[in-house]
Amino acid sequence: MSTEPIPVVKLSPKEALEMAEAEKQPVFVPTPVYTDDRGWSLMNMLTGALRPEGQVNFSVQYPGVVKAWHRHALQTDFWICLQGHLKVGVHREEDGRSWMGVIGEKRAGMVVIPPPLWHGAATVGPTSAGLLYFVTKAYDASSPDEERRGPGDIPGFSWGVEHR
Question: What is the dihedral of CA 23, 122, 141, 47, to 10 degrees?
Answer without folding.
Answer: -50
